[in-house]
Write a structure and sequence with these properties.
This protein is an alpha+beta fold and 321 residues long. The protein has a single domain, classed as endopeptidase fold (from Nostoc punctiforme) (Alpha-Beta Complex). It is 31% helix and 12% strand. The chain is built from 8 helices and 11 strands. Strands 1, 6, 7, 8, 9, 10 and 11 form a 7-stranded antiparallel beta sheet that branches. A hairpin with a 2-residue loop joins strand 8 and strand 9. Helix 3 crosses helix 6, helix 3 packs across helix 7 and helix 6 packs across helix 7. The longest helix is centred in the N-terminal third of the chain and has 35 residues. The chain is elongated and about 95 Å long.
């Protein structure tokens, strides 16, 4: 013991320890503040701010999401596929059930959100067929896309190197293509065999999307068709769009129109622009409309030349296209 501690009375010894206790208290306070700061940094740097919030869809007029009768599925950031759907098959009673799956190319993943899809308000223009009418099943989208790619197609890298010449060539080709295509009387769907030419001055993925659309261009309309499987004998609006996108390698599982309204990136794309709401969807592929509504007959083409009404649809596009 020191001389101070031997001779000092108890009160003085307590006073001698007070500076040391103050140092201990200050150190403990600093440790507590550091712990609180670390906890706060952990919260703000975690999943709640991963890469920033996903951009909202560009909506001309927000669609109404129905919670009434219809097809319901879950979407995580616009990516989850339907869990189960039931509906009438082209005017006759029927049911389709899709297994839960996950589609790529969507926006950032988030918590599951229920997506309810109302009956397609454009169904009357899509010429639904009775259940007794059967069409041969389609091939898988990958096969359809491979078979229709234009020979000698330029790669994506080559296309992007020729942006100046591409814009002019694209405009000339589109003008020539529209002069060659004549809609069927009574509707706006393309005549002939229902297919459209596949351009050579667009990325290969876009060529494959067009080839996929050609493969099912004259298939009958069946509400809910193409959701339990890409291979079907009839397709509704979202089944048709999903099939064509899958042919281009841009989608791995069918999505309902309500899911397509938040899929991909917001705004119009350079080659592909998707319009979707809770009940209907269609798209513009290299300047030609792909839609089940506006057809002139049960087996008329899904490729249309007239621009459909665009109000009330979210505007989306595949990332990079």
């Amino acid at each position: 013991m020191s001389a101070v501690s031997k001779t000092a009375p108890p009160a003085k010894r307590v006073k001698a320890r007070q500076p040391r206790q103050a140092l201990y208290a200050a150190a403990a306070a600093l440790i507590a503040i550091a712990a609180v700061a670390a906890a706060l940094l952990g919260k703000t740097g975690g999943s709640g701010h991963r890469g920033g919030a996903a951009a909202p869809p560009v909506v001309v007029q927000p669609p109404a999401i129905s919670t009434g009768p219809g097809r319901v599925s879950t979407a995580g950031g616009g990516a989850a596929s339907p869990a189960a759907r039931t509906g009438a098959g082209g005017g006759g009673a029927g049911a389709l059930t899709a297994k839960p799956s996950r589609a790529g190319g969507g926006s950032a993943a988030g918590s599951a959100v229920a997506v309810a899809e109302v009956r397609d308000p454009e169904e009357a223009k899509s010429f639904p067929l009775p259940a007794s009418t059967h069409h041969a099943p389609a091939t898988t989208p990958s096969v359809a896309g491979e078979a229709g790619v234009a020979p000698g197609a330029a790669s994506d890298a080559q296309i992007r190197k020729e942006l100046g010449e591409e814009a002019q060539a694209k405009a000339q080709e589109l003008a020539a293509r529209q002069r060659a295509l004549t809609p069927v009387p009574g509707g706006s769907s393309v005549g002939g065999n229902g297919t459209i030419p596949i351009p050579t001055n667009v990325p290969e993925a876009v060529q494959r999307v067009i080839a996929g659309g050609n493969a099912i261009a004259d298939f009958p309309y069946i509400w809910g068709g193409g959701h339990a499987s890409f291979v079907a004998n009839g397709y509704d609006c979202s089944g048709s769009v999903s099939y064509a996108l899958a042919a281009g390698g841009l989608l791995s599982a069918p999505l309902v129109s309500g899911e397509l309204a938040s899929w991909g990136d917001p705004g119009p794309g350079r080659w592909i622009t998707i319009y979707a709401n809770a009940g209907h969807t269609f798209m513009d592929v290299d300047g030609v409309w792909f839609d089940t509504a506006g057809r002139s007959g049960p087996y008329a083409s899904r490729w249309l030349l007239a621009t459909p009404p665009l109000e009330g649809y979210a505007v989306r596009h595949p990332p990079g296209y």
